Amino acid sequence: MNAPSKFRYISTDRRVREDRRFVVGKGRYIADLAAEGMLHVALVASQHAAANIKSIDASKALAMPGVHAVIDGAELAAASEPLMNGLDTPNVRRHPLAVGATRYMGEWVAAVVADTRALAEDAAELVEVEYEALPFVIDAEEAYTPASTPVHPAHGSNVLLDRVFNWGDIDEHFAASERQLSLRVTWGRNSTVPIETFGVLAQWDPWGQVLDVRASIQMPKYADQIARALRLPMNGVRVHYDVDVGGSYGVKRGIKHSVLVGYLARKLGRPVRLIEDRLENMRSGDAHGPERIFDIDVAFNSDGVINSMKMRALDNAGAYAGRAPFQLGKPIGAIVGPYRIKSVRYHAVSVTTNKAVEEAVRGFGQSPTNYAIETMVDRVAEAVGLDKVEVRRRNLIRKEEFPYLIPSGTRYDSGDYHAVIDKTLAHVGWRELVAERDALRARGLLAGIGIAACLEPSGGNSSFEPLLNPKNTTTTWMESCRLNVDALGTVNVAIHTTSSGQGHETLVATAVGEALEIDPDKIRVTRPDSLSSLPGNSPVGSRMAIMLGGAAFHAAQKLKAKIVAIAARRLGCAPEAAVYREGAVFHGDREVSWDDIVTIAHRHFHELPEGAEPGLESTYIMQTPTGLELPTADGRVQMYPCHSFEFHVVLVVIDPDLGKPELRRYVIGHDCGTVINPHIVKGMTLGGIAHGIGATLLEEFVYDAEGQMMSQSFMDYLMPSAHEVPRVEIVHHCTPSPLTVFGQKGSGESGYLGAPAAVSGAINDATRPLGVRFNKLPIRVGALADAVADAREQRKDSAP
Amino acid sequence: MKVSLTVNGETREIDAEPRLTLLDALRDHLRLTGCHTGCEHGVCGACTVLIDGAPARACLLFAVQADGLEITTIEGLAPAPGELSLVQDAFCETHAMQCGYCTPGMVLTAHALLRDNPAPTRDAIVDAISGNICRCTGYGQIVEAIELAARRLAGSNAPAKGDAA
Amino acid sequence: MKAAPFEYSRPSSVAEACELLTRDEDARIIAGGQTLVPMMAMRLARPTRLVDIARIPELAFIRDDSDAIVVGGATRQAALERHASLAARLPLLARALPWVGHAATRNRGTVGGSIANADPAAEIPLVLVTLDGSIRARSTRDDKVIAADDLFEGPMATALALDACLTEVRFPTWSHARMGSAFQEISARHGDFAYVSAAAQVALDGDGKCVACAIGVGGATAAPTRLKAASAALLGGRLDDAATREAIAAEIAALDIMIDPHASPAYRRRVAVTLAHRVVIAAHDEALSRTPA
Ligand code: FES
Ligand code: FES
Questions:
Q1: CATH code matching the domain that covers C59-172, chosen among 3.30.465.10, 3.40.140.100, 3.80.10.10, 3.30.70.1350
Q2: B46 CB within 6 A, ligand 1
Q3: Could you report the predicted ipTM of this complex, rounded to two decimals?
Q4: Which of A198, A755, C101, C146 sits at 20 to 30 Å (Cα–Cα) from A524?
Q5: What gap in Å lies between CA A567 and CA A575, rounded to an integer?
Q6: Where are the domains of chain B?
Q7: Interface membership of A727 toward B (CB under 8 Å)
Q8: For ligand 2, atom 4, which residue shows the shortest CA distance?
Q9: CATH number at B86-164
Q10: Which residue, among C100, C108, C114, C190, would best test binding to B if mutated, counting the most B CBs under 10 Å from its CB?
């Protein structure tokens, strides 16, 4: 930290309270929850990229002892509404089970319910489905052409979104620039792939008319969507938030699973549970991440100053729309990265193809966009023959320019990018690092340095929704918290969401402890179910430090005001004259203790100030600090309020014969404002980097030309192990946000937002002397070595 | 068929189909749910248990194969209710987890490593946990936890010096 | 992801195991199960009966013969890894074993299982082929020795009859004073099956001339391949010259390289040459550092 802390608990080295239950195996995950008489679901999956369903014969399956039901898409569709689309695309209908036709390999055609999962799988094998194979489209560019086979014929084409935004005087800036260049980079289809698959358990109470739902969920508006789809009143759905989620990072949005299981539980009158197995998770969990092609034209001067950028982003959304297209919208809030690019043309295209469905992934489209922007800046540096750090320095927004309005309408809250970079490079020893790279090169190795300067927009609102869907006029995106001091004076805090490793209990205990000046370890944090909850929008958009931390703080402030009012009456002074300190209230040398205040609040109505309610309780529903307006007609909008900054430096070494990149050194400079819990932020950052390394080098959902998915298991979808993740050095800096209660910004996506750009940049630096370039992620060992071998061969040939 | 499983020192008999994995037997029959299901095909390590003291994947063993073997699960590590083993405590100290899903497997693997090699190098730690995938942490704080546990272990074995332990 | 139903037997002798295998042609042996169980979980394998040989005492042993280390078919990889004389007598195997999966899979996985599974990129088969070892296989019909050369027929295919039980594996040992060995492989991640692996063991005379040489490559071809011609050509030479690489390259140039989506055939061929050459050099350097007898 760069300033002595003014906090008591915030930013201090405190344990994360959730860890205690996890280290002893007492987390409460969805698969750990069993209900009396529970039935199990397995799915019948299509093996075709696209096909009409001619018939489904479940008689053999139903004849098996222990099998309770087999349902198909027609039955479910008749009893439920289609799942929600983000965009206004009513003819792209999605149901949990395919209706009439299947649109990607692995799509669920029927669901089998049996006494055990093993039996359900046995029966699923006996369901006979007759298909008629249909033409299909796998490639996004092809899907974008009018001649391509539409995945949804009723929609008329494969185009879900095709919109050009012009922010600023693009043509003028291009004309006035000395230089231009173009590039294309491709982000491969990968995802966060949590180690816990998605699971949901539903139970219907026909007398109480309530559907109880427990799920490993991380999703805004989950209860609303289940209620809508199943045509239940929202207070007929009770989502239990006291379920530990075994990792999500965006993707745990099993709405189709939940609607299916909710329906089955009602139909069968028994609790029903569906836990995806790994195959179902990989091929049909609706949890793939963005797959994106970027085409960029950039206009700049010979001194490396970038003036304007035109970017086309073409996203392969897979077979259904969902919220995938919004992942093209969120990056609009940081479309110029940390740079003073004056104008931008952004062409956002989302198409359907016969691949599995795309869902929200860590950063909601920001990491691919950052990879594109940073690769562009590297190219500019190369073109003007300047050091790539220097080119960044020349383009970075300066500290004194904040709050800084970018062309697409977002105001960045605060930052000191130059300071973070200077600090990081000083820690690295930049000159020494360059010397080390050159020494490695002299030894015949390929060696390269990659850097990335990236933003993490945080405090998520939903401004991309009205921006991309005019029928959506949502500007409210709140989070809430309730505090209650009980009759014996202990503090209880209620939060209204599930968590998937973010440490929310620690977060709110720390925030409330800070505000009330009491030991956070003495505060109990609970998670009421959705029927007892205040409204919220779940941990998405890197928002909880800001929004849940903020709501908790504000609730505590309200509570404090009540406490002070109660004490002031006893002290015989005006509340403004009373001082709150560590749970007690003072006026001059007189004091009312915490216990006294609790007694008055709970037992001495006669001592309460006039009009005060008994008890000590407060709630706060917090709206995001910014993003309160609808977008302008030309598509400018305030996206997320806060902007964390990260600067990555990576040294990569590659044995040219083998092609396997080794990350020799990894340093990240990180500024996410005031850190609430340093362990949590560190973990997020390290985990994000590991995930980014995976996306850059290893991970991809590969489809072959027939639309068959080639990476359905962990044998083919490769995630980094401890061997593949280097030791990472973190350099801290703190530029508080003026918009948040403690100056905090988000860190839930940190590391991931810059790692792919930095690692790929390092590899490209390493192979640059050979004239070899990699513009597509992941960069695999074999492809890397083959390109290097070809280049060497050519050099040999062209040598005199 | 009848299978007798010895888990955390206690022998219990269950009625199991041969196809029931040890993982499902522990979770569904013995309700030891700290052993987690990640992939069911032997890659992720979330299901790690100790068999005769050595880490193994519970999803790659049918329960019938395991009868008579000494199985230790995460539930068998804490010295007493409410207490933590030294390794578990070190994991809490460095925050060597986020969602906690891989954690039981990591903790058991760390226990086995430190028993065989009380002063492992960083490389030895990395190698030992490399068969367990963690999607949250990037492994840094897990390695730190095991290093910390090793240091404390060394301290706890040192000749008594005041209350240094 | 649950296996299809099957019957389970745990015979107490090899003879009994063979009986069971003969009676049911869809019965399969399970020992460590580290490869079979995932296949069963995905229902890509559906044996009607598993014959569990893991606890047959006559199959779990490690014996130091004068010219070989002989290992029972159901011996755990981890047990072999810890065998006291392994590093001195079979240094090549000692170097290869840490590359086999992960510690947790080696604790259950068996030596015989890895061989019978015959993954083209598996380390233990490569060492067996490189050192020209053999296995013994017993069935109700016969009890025979199969040379490594005749054993591996292709990816997941061996000369082992379906009703046979692999009872022992024989890794020949060398007695030269100046012996060196090396093992290297390249894969996407440490612990994954290799794109290419290479093993070499060489012995030098007091003068530094090669008197014994065994080189093998895995992952590149449908089954592990011993580079016989190159090994023969290098006898009597010094190994540290350009001729070594040429001999290796010439032999690998003639091999049928496997085609699969993970790496191009060109990659596999090139890297096979590179790694084979590197392991020979490393083995040579190690041998050279040893004092002559
Ligand atoms: S669940 Fe056993 S290794 Fe993944
Ligand atoms: S803590 Fe979540 S997978 Fe390791």
A1: 3.30.465.10
A2: yes
A3: 0.97
A4: A198
A5: 8
A6: 2-76, 86-164
A7: yes
A8: B134
A9: 1.10.150.120
A10: C108
